[in-house]
Design a protein that fits this description.
Two copies of one chain form a homodimer. Chain A has 394 residues and is α/β, with parallel strands linked by helices. Chain A has ten helices and 16 strands. In chain A, strand 5, helix 5 and strand 6 form a beta-alpha-beta unit. Chain A is globular and about 70 Å long. Chains A and B meet through helix 3, helix 5, helix 8 and strand 10 of A and helix 3, helix 5, helix 8 and strand 10 of B.
């Protein structure tokens, strides 16, 4: 281990994570796991860097220590952020980067062969931003003796129950997102240019709150107004806020890559009755949903209670109303395991963490009042405390 | 076309782009192209939103108008940002999102069948962050009558020569990055917490400069100091700057998704001779490289002249020294076509744009002094004007 390495977790905790991953590999008869999801790489080893735009992975097998593999110039970053010994940090030459002649995964196959891991069952994360169709094709071509099996989200599922240290980072993220919402409410006003408002949100989120310094969130702040808020994922421009505008703020605090998302909606001046009705519907339905947020209930119980109550208010919604959160990298702050939606029968357990996301996108705007929660012994705890209503600024 | 749609380019320019793409498809005998790269989607249609974390694409064929396909709730965003008629904006149901039972691409196959595009040769972007191995597998399974062919970067290559309107957006981005570097130099000082410095960089970049409002860059600001700067891609924490620290700032201005990256390095106090030597080497070598930045020269000519001159100063470097820039989405602001490196024989043409990136990562820190340039009739033009040297702040 490099000297003075300031890891985010104890070596014991990393050891537990590795053991859990190996148990699941054994259960599925996977001899070797190629972990490309940057969140999984970080969770297993501590590795942290904006290097996921080139191919990289952590190789997990039953017997040998994990191996970090990536672009040569990023090996220095691996040395500085993960607990893996220098001997097990392997860089590939730069002529593999974005080449039309050779694929970095060709090099990985050679390495697996050298490590004696090129046969048996090799798990790969088939559904991942960082495992392209071409990456898979390269491994298929160069590992003729191996059986490639789908291990999508194998590691993600080991991450669903958070440790106390993880929760502590998420609480730091919660302090940050509280500060971001307070800052937005302070400064938002008629005549403000949206890009300036976005700039203030970034500043508040990255500066953080005292010792809770801000890391970059895996999704950037959304702050659509009016008709743009009929769509969930439009980013800002230089339009100017005016009286009567309703804007939702879908943002997250982030600390050491752990997220606390939280959305609120602000109306400049009194909102129309329709939005007050929508607010009442969302809050009633959210509380009905959250009554089911406790150990022993299923993920879908939260969603169904929410949908059913929402419908009594005349709103019909069928998309998912939440998902697991924690450690993440762009482009998504969800953990991509459980979803709060009909059909998801995962049983809730203590220290699972969710973004409960009961958004309503109407025909002329959107309303988002959301909560990030941690499941406790007998219910749930809100991670961040921000006034739970449609905010009005005169 | 939706009323009052404020497109970033004329319909004529989008028409030219589509025509160029279709010509290349015809040349390669591709009947239908499934474009998943968000930059390519935006370049072809104007579509803009942080929705690329779920599967989406633009379908291009020879005869019919392009079709936008994506998550149902994002169709509203497509209506508001791209020129495509509502009839050709197709959303898939939310139960496809991050499901373990069904893949969104299953739905795409159905759509292609309905459009009569499920046979013949279908081009897919095999090497892309947003075309997973599982996406490819789904298409293989559900399109038995089609031949799937690799069309990675087919559209990217149509983007390499910039239009005047594109250059105008990149010049806006250049004004923004100039402002960011000026702001950094103004405020950097001993005792400053890195996350606060990062917060100020974000604020400056997103607020922009007057009418040049800031969009989010496809790579977030890097500002590693000292040993962390021996690695290229580590992000900030809450460490405190001290006298003698050398920090490089790898940042970009961004306007309407067009980028102008530019790196500078700042030493707090007089830098050691070793860094002054490195500065001289980089600047000499950069000028030697840029003498080759003109129409008719090859991409590798720039790199080779740079490497050769660098070597006369005792520095050996083999990774690439630059790449095409323009329109981009996370996780990479490069266009992923040409690279300035040995072996790249692409001929330079007027209005190509590059980030010339002659970074040196030393054993105890890093030095980055880079330039974004546009190729002119007879040479090149620096996009941004920032003092071209190792900056010293006392």
């Amino acid at each position: 281990m490099p000297k003075n390495l300031d890891l985010n977790f104890t070596l014991a905790e990393y050891g537990d994570r590795l053991a859990a991953t190996r148990r699941e590999m054994a259960r599925r008869d996977i001899d070797c796991l190629v972990v490309v999801d940057p969140s999984n790489m970080a969770w297993l080893t501590g590795y942290d860097g904006w290097s996921f735009y080139t191919h990289q992975c952590v190789i997990v097998s039953q017997d040998a220590e994990p191996v970090w593999w990536g672009r040569g110039i990023d090996a220095a970053g691996a040395l500085r952020t993960c607990y893996i010994d220098a001997d097990s940090i392997i860089g590939y030459p730069d002529h593999f980067v974005q080449s039309t002649e050779r694929h970095p995964m060709d090099h990985l196959s050679q390495l697996l062969r050298k490590l004696g891991l090129d046969r048996g069952s090799i798990g790969v994360e088939m559904e991942n931003y960082y495992f392209s169709a071409a990456a898979f094709r390269s491994l298929q071509t160069h590992l003729p003796s191996a059986k490639l099996v789908d291990a999508t989200a194998l590691v993600n599922w080991q991450r669903i129950v958070k440790s106390e240290q993880e929760l502590s980072y998420m609480r730091s993220a919660a302090r940050i997102v509280e500060g971001m919402h307070a800052h937005i409410y302070d400064i938002i006003e008629r005549g403000m240019v949206k890009s300036n408002l976005a700039a203030e949100i970034f500043k508040s989120g990255i500066a953080g709150q005292g010792e809770h310094w801000g890391d970059y969130p895996a999704i950037l702040p959304m702050l659509p107004t009016g008709m743009d808020a009929t769509a969930p994922h439009l980013t800002w421009d230089n339009s100017v806020l005016k009286q009567g505008d309703i804007t939702f703020f879908e943002i997250a605090g982030c600390h050491k890559r752990y997220h606390c998302p939280l959305s609120r909606t602000i109306s400049l001046g009194q909102p129309p009755q329709k939005y007050l009705d929508a607010e009442k519907a969302v809050l009633d339905a959210m509380h009905a949903g959250l009554e089911n947020a406790k150990p022993g209930k299923l993920a879908e119980d939260v969603a169904i209670a929410f949908f059913d109550t929402l419908e009594t208010h005349g709103f019909k919604k069928d998309n998912r109303t939440g998902y697991c959160i924690g450690l993440s990298y762009p482009p998504d702050w969800g953990e991509r395991t459980m979803s709060l939606r009909r059909g998801d029968k995962t049983e809730l357990q203590k220290n699972m963490t969710f973004h409960f996301m009961p958004a309503l996108w109407l025909d002329d705007g959107g309303l988002e009042i959301t909560e990030s929660v941690v499941i406790t012994d007998s219910g749930y705890e809100r991670l961040a405390e921000v006034e739970q209503r449609l905010l009005v600024k005169d």
